[in-house]
Amino acid sequence: MRTDAIILGAGASGLLCALTAARRGFTCTIVDHSPVAGRKVRVAGGGKGNVTNLHMGQEWYVGKDVSFVQKALRHCSPDWVLKLLQEFSIPWEERDYGQIFCTVPAARLVEALIARISQMGTSVLLRRNLHNVAWSDGLFRVQTSEELLEATRLVIALGSPAWPASGSSDLGIRLARHFGHKVVPVHPVLVPLICPNSWPLQNLAGISLSAAVNIHERRFEYPLLFTHRGLSGPAILQASCFWNHAEKLKIDFLPGMSALELMHMPNNGRLTVLNLFRKVLPSRLAERLVPSELASCKAAQLNKLARTRLAAAIHAHEVVPTRSEGMNRAEASSGGVETCDVNPRTMESKRCPGLYFTGEVLDITGLLGGYNLHWAWASGKTAGEAFRKN
C-alpha cells in the first residue's frame, strides 16, 4: 500500500501531522502497535487532557537547544489549539497557572481527530507491530505484522520510553539511530524523587502543602507532596526536569510568608515556637522542621541567632535525593534525537530527506502544565505543513 506519508505513532503529534497534511491534499497512513490511538492524550490531566498552556515560550522546555522550539511554537500558538478544540466542539476551561483542560473526556478529542482524518483519506492502522523499516530508491518501506507500506515520507512520532504502561518504548530512538541520527541519552523527568533513609523528613507520607523548590536558579512554587519514599507533587515534578544525581534541592516550606516576621509579631510572642509554626504548617511537618531545643521556647525569647537558624530550617531546607522513581513512574523523559540534525522549520532530518521527527522522540521536553502536549501539537503541525508535492 502506497501513500504520501507513513506516520509511525498514533499519539498527539502523529494525529496532528496527519490532519495538517490531509488538509493540504496529502494521503497518510498512521501505524501504531496500540489497540487505541492517543493513549496518553486520553489519560492526561486525569482524563481531561491538559492540552495547552496560555503561558507559552521556550523557557518552559528543556533540552540541549531549547531555541529549537521557537519556530514551531510561533506557528502553533495556544490560541490555535483553542480554535482546534472549538472546531471539534470540545469545551474547555482555564485552571491554575494558565493550564487549559477539556471539560469533557479528552478521548472525545482523540476520536474527533481520528474521524476527521479518516474522512480525508488517512488510514489508521492499530495493533500493528513493526518488523522492518528501510529506505531505498527514494521510498520508505515499512513492513508491519500485516502489510507492506510505501511512501516518500516517513514521520517518526513514537514518543519516548517514559511511562511504559501507556505503551511507550524506545523504538523511535532506535529508528533514529538506524537512520544515522545521534541521540542525547534519555532519563526520566516529571517524576517523583526518592530521598535517603537518613533524611529527617522521612515518614511524613500524605502531607501536602504549597512550597517552593529551588534548583539551578529555577524556582517552582507549586503543591508539594510527601510520599513513602520521598517527594512528589507538581513542585517536585517540575524540579525533576533539572535535577541530576547527587544534586541538592532547596525547599521553602512557607513561600510568600516570612518566618522572621511571624516570630516578631507581638501577638505571637507568647506562643511556643512549635505552636506558632503549627498554625502555618502541617503539624507533623512543623514538629520535624523546628529544632527540638527551640520547640518549647517562647517566640519572644529567641535571640537573633536562634531566629535566623529557625527561618533557614523553614525557608531553606536542603535535601539530596538518592534517585528518581524511574521511567515506570515518569510522565516524560529528557533527551532524544539531537535537534542539531533536524530542521526546526520543517522537523525534517538533515541526514535523510523525507524523514521527519515529531513530539517527545526529539530532545525537547516540556515542563508540567500542558507544555509537552502542546509541543506534540506544534511539532506535528510543523511537519504536516512542510510536505511538498514531488
Show the helix and strand layout.
Elements (H helix, E strand, L loop, with lengths): L4 E4 L3 H12 L4 E4 L7 H5 L6 E4 L7 E2 L7 H6 L2 H10 L4 E3 L4 E4 L4 H13 L3 E3 L4 E7 L2 E6 L3 E4 L1 E4 L14 H8 L4 E7 L3 E2 L13 E8 L2 E9 L3 E3 L1 H7 L8 E4 L6 H6 L8 H6 L4 H7 L2 H4 L8 H12 L1 E3 L3 E2 L7 E6 L17 E3 L7 E2 L4 H16 L4
Parallel strand pairs: 1-2, 1-11, 2-7, 11-21
Antiparallel strand pairs: 3-6, 4-22, 5-6, 8-9, 9-10, 12-20, 13-16, 13-19, 14-15, 14-17, 15-16, 17-18
Number of H/I helices: 13
Q: Which percent band covers the strand fraction?
A: 15-25%
Parts with pLDDT < 50 across at least 5 consecutive residues: none
How would you name the CATH homologous superfamily of the largest domain? FAD/NAD(P)-binding domain
Biggest sheet character: 7 strands, antiparallel
Could you name the CATH class of the largest domain? Alpha Beta
- The whole-number mean of residue pLDDT values reads 96
**Spatial strand order of the main sheet:** 18-17-14-15-16-13-19
Going by CATH, the architecture of the largest domain would be 3-Layer(bba) Sandwich
Oligomer: single chain
The CATH topology of the largest domain is given as FAD/NAD(P)-binding domain
Helix fraction bin: 25-40%
Total domain count: 2
Radius of gyration: 24 Å
Q: Note the gap between the termini.
A: 18 Å
Give the number of DSSP strands.
Answer: 22
Shape: elongated
Structural class: alpha+beta
